[in-house]
Amino acid sequence: DEENGTGVSPSQLLLVALGGCTGYDVVSILEKKRQRLTGLEITVTGEQEADPPWAYRKIHVHYEVRGRGLDEGAVHKAIKLSEQKYCSVAATLRHAAEITYDYTIVEEG
């Protein structure tokens, strides 16, 4: 509960939903491209309005993509496809907030 600082608030669940939705897409696309993905960590942060109803103005998604010999072009394209075409949560939220994305690739031997 929010009063005691435990649990997730409904507005935070929006960010969790975005991360889950786009993460599913990115993994699926990279697997289809036969990329050797070993892990994906997504961090989603948001800036909310100062006054009620505290709507999100800006949302940022950072992907840490881990794998062996990953093609940067394939990673970039997978994220872009998710963002622009496949993720229904992103499609819904982009009408209400500015959504930005970036990524890092971590080579695992």
Task: Characterize this entry briefly.
The chain is α+β, with helices and mostly antiparallel strands. Helices cover 40% and strands 33% of the residues.
Please give a structural write-up.
The chain has 109 residues and is an alpha+beta fold. It has a domain at 56-109: K homology (KH) domain (GMP Synthetase, Chain A, domain 3), CATH 3.30.300. It has 3 helices and 3 strands. Strands 1-2-3 form a 3-stranded mixed beta sheet, covered by helices on one side. Helix 1 packs across helix 2 (72-86). The protein is elongated, with a radius of gyration of 15 Å. The termini are far apart.
Low-confidence spans:
none
Task: Assign a percent range to the helix content.
Answer: 40-55%
CATH level-two architecture of the domain at 56-109 = 2-Layer Sandwich
| Named CATH topology of the domain at 56-109 | GMP Synthetase, Chain A, domain 3
Profile the largest sheet: 3 strands, mixed
Task: Give the CA-CA distance, first to last residue.
Answer: 42 Å
Task: Give the tags.
elongated, 3 helices, 3-stranded mixed beta sheet, alpha+beta, 3 strands, 33% strand, 109 residues, GMP Synthetase, Chain A, domain 3
Strand and helix map with partners:
Layout (H helix, E strand, L loop, with lengths): L9 H23 L3 E13 L7 E13 L3 H15 L1 H6 L4 E10 L2
Parallel strand pairs: 2-3
Antiparallel strand pairs: 1-2
Helix pairs in contact: 1-2
